[in-house]
Amino acid sequence: MGKLKEIRWHGRGGQGAKTAALLFADAALSEGKYIQAFPEYGPERTGAPVQSFNRVSDEPITIHCHAKNPNVVVVLDPTLIGSVDVTAGLAPDGVIIVNTNQPASTIREKLKLNGRKLYTLDASAIAKETIGRDIPNTPMLGALVKVTGLLSYETITEDTRRKLEVKFRNKPEVIEGNLKAIERAYNEVKEGQ
Amino acid sequence: MAKVLQEATKMTQVQKMVKKALTGNEAAAYAMRQINPDVVAAYPITPATEIVQIYSSYVADGLVNTEFVAVESEHSAMSATVGACAAGGRAMTATSSQGLALMWEMLYIAAGLRLPIVMPVTNRALSAPINIHGDHSDTMGARDAGWIHIFSENSQEVYDNIIQAIRIAEHKDVLLPVMVTMDGFIISHAMEVVEVAPDELVSKFVGIYKPDRYLLDIDNPMTMGGLDFTDYYFEHRRSLAEPMFHAKEHILAVASEFEREFGRKYGLFEEYRMDNAEYAIVVLGSTAGTAKVAVDELREQGVKAGMIKVRIFRPFPYDEIAHAVSECRAAAVLDRSDGLAGRGGPVFGEVRSAICDMEKKPVTMNYVYGLGGRDINVEMIKSVYKDLQRAVATGERALVNYLGVRD
């Protein structure tokens, strides 16, 4: 990897965009990488559009400004498309991963992606089937790992398990559900034409 | 042989460091847990709340044996910390912005009583208008309160500076309160890699606080904060300036011991690519990290750019910084707070004062930036270097500039 990569997460308050960035960063650290994870703070309300960010690199990271030109954009909520400019600043060789149940061609048209790569999956359906609620952050984490190869599948699942075991000690079904969600998303995410 | 052994010991200690993903606030709370002060008195305020919130959970979980005092305001937080420290305890608190402003009169009392209180401050803009984001207006307002003032670039420095601050504050020839700052949200809420030391190492490094004089020493009764009119007030205030002047050498001594034990080097300021630098910027806090990227990019293009990151703002290293910029053709000072009616921001005033008596000195310019958390990026910093080059080439410059503000 070497060079610094920036990831921007788009979600709505309550969907876990911030948690996803923190889980990703923590997992990357366990592979010995340098990381940053930070949310964009504004008025925090459930359902309002929110963003969070990751930086990841093999070298120490000193930069502390906003991440305006992400290499990867992850969209947790398809209803953001049209109201939030999710492709803003995305590099010409950038990648966007969208949670949607619509055909990739529809998303591509809406986003005016030109040459940039689009990957889609129905993370909400996966979340409902595995976790029991539409919290699409962990499946999108699985998709991100698959698409970018920034981390190994084993790292993200093991590290997420460790994190969740602390928080959900008495709810093993939550841990298993999230891990299953990562696995399914990892396998189901597809490049969309 | 002894040297080999020493090296080996150093290696084991450095190897015991663990890398963790921590925010600035988490790093501050982590350091405080390892310091395990006798008393923490606190009142929550965004964006510093997490520090004492996490600390209160350490107290609840029995990880520290601190007396945690949940007070009703920041004025009370500093009052209780002053009381606890005067009584003979190691006492800490943490705050931000309006909270620091409400502590105002107690800040001066903490210093005037020579109480070695250490306080992490998460820098945040002051109202009005209300803003929760990072700028340096809050602690700059306290610059003449008699506190040693240490700025941190990132979460690692927050952790390292708080540990060192205890030793600096409590040194018998210093005995001054210390504030350790970090940029609100930019550092306080950003998760980064922080190398933390084992508890025993920190605990050994900070040692046990044994004050020479304290109120609860009933065998040696004493008065603190007595009345002092035209007869002695002046002498006492003069004697407060003395330890501040001399604090530099102790700050450096603590830094070198810290480097031996923890493996990370600190000074009064950091020079980044200042060798043969023609154009320099002087900056505090997290922006220094972003500036390093700008300097690297400019150096690649052949521009002799360098950067100075001020770590110790009080006592300000006048002579050292003057020396560091003496060979530059131009230097810009970046201030994340405004002097309003002053000529530029507070850091600009210090740097100008530092170089004023030099025979050969760089052209200087001031940039007030980032108020209320306004972003400052690599391109903006590069534009400052461009201005410096133009100022040298054409003689044209504006002394005080606003960077990143809309007209």
Features:
heterodimer; A: 193 residues; alpha/beta; Pyruvate-ferredoxin Oxidoreductase, domain 3; 6 helices; 7 strands; 38% helix; B: 407 residues; Rossmann fold; 2 domains; six-stranded mixed β-sheet; four-stranded mixed β-sheet; 43% helix
Short description:
The complex is a heterodimer of chains A (193) and B (407). Chain A has 193 residues and is an alpha/beta fold.
What is the number of domains of chain B?
A: 2
Q: Which residues of chain A form runs of ≥5 with pLDDT under 50? A: none
Average pLDDT of chain B, rounded to a whole number, is 95
| Count of distinct strands of chain B | 15
CATH superfamily of chain A: Pyruvate-ferredoxin oxidoreductase, PFOR, domain III
Helix amount of chain B, in percent?
40-55%
Distance between the termini of chain A: 26 Å
Quick check: average pLDDT of chain A?
94
* Total helical elements of chain B: 14
Order of helices and strands of chain B: HEHEHEHEHHEHEHEEHHEEHEEHEHEHE
CATH level-4 homologous superfamily of the largest domain in chain B: Thiamin diphosphate (ThDP)-binding fold, Pyr/PP domains
The helix/strand order of chain A is EHEEEEHEHHHHE
Number of strands of chain A: 7
Strand content of chain B: 15-25%
Low-confidence stretches of chain B: none
Task: Give the biggest sheet of chain A.
Answer: 7 strands, mixed
Q: What is the annotated CATH architecture of chain A?
A: 3-Layer(aba) Sandwich
